[in-house]
Design a protein that fits this description.
The protein is 36% helix and 19% strand. The chain is an alpha+beta fold and 428 residues long. The strands form three sheets. Strands 1, 2, 3, 4, 5, 10, 11, 12, 13 and 14 form a ten-stranded mixed sheet that branches. Helix 6 packs parallel to helix 13. The longest helix has 20 residues. The chain is globular and about 60 Å long. The two termini are 31 Å apart.
């Protein structure tokens, strides 16, 4: 019987998140006029080239498989995005590709599945990525799409049992706040803190740019919806290098920002506590991570950024739905043989502030513990569903290196009551 191999992270990148333009009246973000495959494959190709630069002996043909997280798998995000990205990036045909959906867990599930394949000897080099193009496919799009085209002779039906047993994410966030006795003031403080951390990280340019993958898009005139051309008739391009969604006012003028935050109306329940200011921003994003067996990384002369030590998934009450990460974290920590107290970075996805504060109560750390999302989270940066697990895993890996700390745990809640967690170690 083969011994289990160690899975190491050799590089991790994410695109700058773009403001979603899914509402017609909102200002269009970076990626509104491009398409999901275009910017996904740019991230994949950039990752491959970066590893080639660090290890000349590495060739793309060595990659066994590409797994890609995506929740709204229809339209231009359908058709097996993992494989399409391989072809779009013009990588060798021998590289396989697949696409995974575990709602918000999808990106981290792609990482975990590829890590498991390496651990069991089913390949030495894997890529995991994720994408959600929320300018075109907003939250819940894939569920609404199940109803199908009304012009069809027989309209598709959705599960009545599912609809009875669950609710919307926003109402679930309200239920979490009520159950864990979380105040509007605590939720808003957490939301403002997310923006301050994100802006601070962005201004640390040397570290920020190392995990950012520049994305090139064609320039469009939003007034005419046409491509902008130069004097020679060539379409102009823009290189996107900076997140669009974090708001500097939270760091530069916190009193004014927090007053605006306090004036926001509840979005999901009359008299509730969940607002746009303590919920995740809607954003477009993509990210990618390259994983290798320890032996292959050593052979290629690559220094691991981190080692994946344990992972877990768990279901939870589909009505509360956002509590799934609690048992997932407990299982992952136990499997890694470490405790939450030993974690140097705790990276819960900020789908909403309320579950993040519930996790803090459960594991008995402060709401504003400096270990939590030190470079900001989804409230500031955005939550492109299938991408988030890869993007915030990437943030955790780079920040462990930045701080020269050892342990990190990444976790996400998901629709229908699913949770996922991964423990990594940065070897000092």
């Amino acid at each position: 019987m083969k011994e289990m191999k160690e899975t190491v992270v050799v590089d991790a990148i994410r695109a700058p998140f773009g403001r979603s333009g899914w509402k017609a009246e909102t200002k269009k973000g970076y990626y509104y006029y491009t398409n999901a495959h275009n910017f996904s494959s740019q991230a994949l190709l950039t990752l491959v080239k970066r590893v080639q630069e660090k290890a000349p002996a590495f060739t793309p043909e060595m990659i066994e498989d590409v797994a890609w997280g995506c929740s709204a798998q229809f339209g231009e995000q359908g058709g097996n995005m993992g494989r399409i990205n391989v072809m779009n990036a013009e990588l060798p045909d021998c590289i396989a590709g697949w696409t995974v959906d575990r709602y918000c867990n999808a990106g981290l599930q792609a990482i975990n599945a590829q890590a498991q394949a390496i651990m069991t000897g089913m390949g030495d080099i894997m890529v995991a990525g994720g994408t959600e193009f929320m300018s075109k496919y907003a939250l819940g799009s894939s569920i609404m799409a199940i109803a199908g085209d009304p012009k069809q002779r027989r309209k598709a039906e959705f599960s009545k049992i599912f609809m009875k047993r669950t609710t919307t994410m926003g109402l679930a966030a309200e239920l979490i706040a009520e159950k864990w006795q979380l105040s509007r003031e605590d939720l808003d403080a957490f939301g403002a803190w997310s923006h301050r951390k994100a802006i601070t990280a962005m201004r640390d340019k040397d570290w920020y740019k190392q995990r950012i993958c520049p994305i090139t898009v064609e320039e469009f005139d939003p007034n005419t919806n046409t491509k902008v051309k130069d004097e020679n008739g060539k379409v102009k391009t823009i290189v996107c290098t900076k997140d669009e969604t974090p708001r500097a006012i939270y760091l530069d003028n916190p009193e004014e920002a927090e007053q605006k935050l306090a004036n926001l109306e509840p979005r999901f329940k009359k008299g509730g506590v969940v607002t746009a200011g303590n919920a995740s921003a809607i954003a477009d994003g993509t990210a990618a991570v390259m994983l290798m067996s320890r032996e292959k990384a050593d052979e290629l002369g690559l220094t691991p950024m981190a080692v994946i030590r344990a992972m877990a998934v768990s279901g939870s009450d589909p009505m509360l739905m956002l509590e799934g990460p609690i048992p997932a974290q407990e299982k992952a920590l136990k499997r890694a043989g470490v405790s939450m107290e030993e974690m140097d970075i705790i990276e819960p996805n900020e789908a909403f502030a309320s579950p993040c504060l519930a996790f803090a109560k459960h594991f008995e750390y402060d709401f504003l513990d400096p270990r939590v999302n030190p470079t900001g989270g989804a409230i500031a940066l955005g939550h492109p569903i299938g991408c988030s697990g890869v993007a915030y895993f990437t943030e955790m890996v780079w920040e462990l290196m930045h701080q020269n700390k050892r342990w990190g745990i990444s976790t996400l809640c998901g629709g229908g009551g699913v949770g996922i967690a991964t423990v990594i170690e940065h070897e000092q």
